[in-house]
Every structure is written in C-alpha cells, then in structure tokens.
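Good morning,

Both structures are done.
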Amino acid sequence: MKRLIPTLVLVLLCIGGFWYASSKDFFKEKPPETPALVTVSKQDVTGYTIKNGDTVVEMAQKDGKWTMTKPSALPLNDYEPGAWVDSFTNAKKEKTVDANPSDLAQFGLAQPNQEFTVTLKDGTKHTLSVGDPVAVQGFYYAKFGSSPEVFQLAEMHVTSLAKQPLDFMEKSPVKLNYEAVRSIAVDYKGGKWTLTKAETDKKSYEANWKLGDQEVKGADASAYLDKVSFLTTDQPAKASAEVKGLDQPDLRLEVKEADAEGKETAALYTGKLDGANVWIAKQGDAWAFSVPAASVQELADLPKTKAAEGAAAGDAAAPAPAAPQDAAKEQK
C-alpha cells in the first residue's frame, strides 16, 4: 500500500492541475486579434488633419519635424505629434454593424462630426470617420475610407484622436537638465535669490548647493529646480515679439548649465506681468508663455517659504517647557 501512495499523490496533483487549467480557460482557443484599420510607417506620414466639430487641426511633418498649420502655429512638444500617428494606426474595429448600409445618416455618418485623416508621401489619404455614440456605452459608429462598412469603434480610440491644439503645445517656458544646471538666479518684484551648485562633480540630488551664503543639501535644492521646471501654461503661446515690455521685465530668470566638457552657457528668461499672468520668453526665442503670476510669486518667495517651514519644524521638534512647580511645594 505504501508503494501506491506516491502514485496516488501524483494522480491527485494531475487532476488538480487539469481542473485549475480548465477553470482558467487554458485549453480554449483564443480568438484572433482584430487587425488594425491601417498600417502606416510614421516616417511616410507627411501630415494629418483632425476635424472635431467646428475645430480643425492640421499638422505637417518635414524632415522629421512637426509643425501646426491650422488653426495657427504653436510651439509643439516632442511627444504628442508623433504619438497621434501611433494612436491612428492602433485604432481597431470592435465588430461590424452593417456591411453595406443604405442610409449612413442613421449612424451619424452622412456628415460625420469627427474625421481623422492621415496623408502619406505618395499622396494616399486614409480617413477614419466617427458618427454617433452606440447604444452600448463606450462605443461609436465609424467607417474607414471608401469602404461602406459601418462598425463599432471603442471610445478610447476616439478620445486619443480627438485632440485640441493645446494638447500638442509645449507648455513649459523653461526646460531644465537637472544634472547640467550650475546656477539659477531669480529676480521678481524685489524678491531675489541665487542657487549655485557647489559640488559640480556630483548628481544634483547628492551635491551640496549654495543659496546665497547658505548651504543647501541636494534634496532641498531639488525643490528649487522643480519650481522652475514646473512653471506651466494652460493658454496658447504667442510670438514673443507681440509681448510688450519684455525689454523692461518684471521677471528675470537666468539658468546656467554646463555640457559634458564643463563649458557653461547661460539662458536668460524675461517676464512681463499682465493682469493675473506673467508672459515669459527665453531671450532670442520666438515664443512667449503665459504663466500664472501666483506661480512666479511662489518661485520668488521660495527661500522665505522654506525658511518658515524649517522654523516651524524646529519649533515642533523642540521639547515643551517644564511646568512650573507648585508654589507650596517650593516652600517645603
């Protein structure tokens, strides 16, 4: 009997394994993946058009560089223009609704509210038209190119394609390479400070820095770099030549960086207060960015803010004064 015990254990393990695999559908044949609507090489794309209601965005690519031609030129970020092409080629139909409909209007496709068109170097155009939402939440009726087929398209694909001009725009007026920064000097409405890297051979977060004559640890210095880097806008940029008063700025921000050989270069940013915003432009750059004045004020006040936080932390850590002894006990 003892000889049969290992065999019985093995049989039980096999039965358990088979049951587990069956419960996880390991033996079921997986359905084939739905192919993409179209496959194009990003390098072959010369441009694309996004029609989203009354908004039309046109993008053009030449020599690997993207520009916005409609509704107007904007400074573009490095990621979104090319990522949009990936989103277009990743779009897949969920299922066919009608292979040859007699009336596209019932699907909102006679005059689609949304159309996304990619143009290739050889002049070929691929257009994805999106109509009304499907009764099942999370899907839209759609058709592709000249094919009459109407199919369901997942809402996530529509969302990734229906971009607005600001989605493509660079929103940060100041670009920092933290490890290359050697100093930052800020002067805004009387608030002035300079942060200088004292140990240039170390990583920014490991090095000691100087705030004026005060030593600052790398972890604390990162807060100053972050504050500069996180200056952002939610408004369209405009030509720096259109901003009046940049030659008599309210804000001066100078960033010095060093290359791999240690050669330093300085970039000067000037800003002009305009209501609740400050228009900031890099000297010699074509674009100016509208940043909330409150954010710029926080940057200028950062040394005071950090000092106050340090004082508050010190007070909290200090031991409470001893309670005075009872007068009667003292007399004894």
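Second structure follows.
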Amino acid sequence: MAGSNNYFIWGEESFLIDQKIKEIHSKMQEESGEEVELLYLDGDELSPPRLLEELEFSPLFSLQRMVVIKRPFWLGKSGRKLSRNEEILKVIQGYFQRETPGQTLVITAAEHNSSNALVKLLDKKAKVIECKPANPKHLADWIKAEFTARGRKINTMGLSLMVKSGQDMYYLYNLIEKLSLVSEDKTISEKDIENQISSKDEIKVFKLTNALLDRNLKASFQAFYQLLEQGEHPVFILFMIVRQFNSLGKVKYYQENRTDIIEISRLTGMRDFAVKKLMSQTRNFSWDEIQYLFKQFLDADIRFKSTSQNDKTIMEGLLIEICSKK
C-alpha cells in the first residue's frame, strides 16, 4: 500500500508531534519484537546528495530503521533556495519510487503549505497526520494527568494559570516535572507555579518568541497581532525578542561546547526547562543568521526612533526576516 511506511506529520505543537513519533516507533518495535534503529536527520543542513545517501538503507546491523526529518525549510513557503528545493524534491520522489522494506520515513512540519510541491508529494505518498493544538479542556486534563502520574495534584487556580499561560506543551511538561520535584506539598498551588513560571511579561510574549525560534511565520504573526490587541507596544515586543535571541546565542555556544543542561542553567541564570527548550531550537539558526538578525534588530530600533515609518510595519518586516532561511 502506497505510503504505508511513510508519514507526514504537521502541526504547531511540537510536543504532540514528538509524541506521535514515539508512538509510531514503539508500534514498530512491538510488531517486530526487536530494537528499531531511530535516526534523526537535520534536513536544513543536509545537501541533496547527502540526503540521498542517508536515505539509502541496507539492513546489515538492524533489520528495521525509522528516519525522522523535523521541520525542514524545504516544506515552507519561502521562495529562497528554489534550486535546492527542486533537488530535494527529486531525491524524495526517487525515494518513494524505490522499495525500502524495513525503513520508515517520517517528515514533520509546523504548517501544511498546500502550494509547496514537496507537500503535494507527501500528501499523495505518505500517511498525513495533523496534530491539532489541545483545546483548553484537553490541555487541563493532560496537565492533571501528568501531575497524577508523578504523585501530585494541582488546585483549580493553579490549573487555570497553566492553561491560560500561553506556553506550549513542552514548556508546561518541563514545568510539571520541575514543580513535582521541588514542591514539598502533594497539591501544587498557583503560588508554586508563579514562583517557577516565567515573569508575566515573558508569559505574554513567549508564544511569539517561541514561534520565531521555531521559524513558524503564521504562528508568529498570530501571536504578534494578539500582543498588539492586548496593548503591547512594538518597542517592548522588540526588546523581548532581542532578549530571547540573546539567550538562544548563549545556549547555542555552551551546547556546542558540550556543556550539560545543569551547567548551562548555572552559567546563564536560566531555569533548566527553559534551557532545554532553547537547546531544541538552536539548530534552527546558524551563527551567521544570528549575527545577521542582531543587525536587523538594531536597524528596527533605529527606524523606530528616527523615521516616520509605522512601528507595526517595521515589526512585520522583522518577523518575516526572522522566519526566512538565509
């Protein structure tokens, strides 16, 4: 059956996508009764020839293998690197035309860009799974279940605070683990959460900065307009973005020097779950891109102060720059 061992999983919530990947991997191991190799490829860094080489599978050491390519740039809407996109398309087309028994390919994306030729190919050749964001009720049920699994409960006010925080599920998952470890009481209260969760200003802008670090343009614009509706000024929003990218740069530096999470947390003053989240996003930006973006941040700040250009328009252009691959 076409697409029986190929998956295209998309959605804004990375946690749900990763859970689905684990579910597929676990099912493969149950059905085979043996260890299934799990290989993650960085689609943004691989050249088309290297991608072709990596997708070649010979079951010498493992009878089954699962290959995961998470949020590659070539599934986006960006018009950049068109020639490379076309080469990647040829590689994936060739892969689907070959028999690859024993290998499962999983490709993920934040959005379903139906105009993208690669997405059209995946729609035809792979099982398409949409991971929709959890609604408030399901999110509340999930939070309670996670606390219960750790021998904890959460009171009504605390639960409401977490559900309305605007944080993604990875942030909440790490916060649940932290609270379960540091809290002496069996029941987690809103005060426990306020002591651990980011400041109110960070909570307000977290959805935007997280979307930007994931290079998710649609989610970035949604979060930006929501902040404007809440009365936040573009200058404040820029300040919070710069601060988050400064944190990203610090974590990327220490991560590349093989520093562990605990030590990075100590050196940067950031909470360990915040460090863990940033570590999962550092690969989205090269050092050249980070340097380029800080020049754009400075340029936006100068234009705020010295031109008559609309602040909202300046920020919209900046969001596009951040989410576009250079």
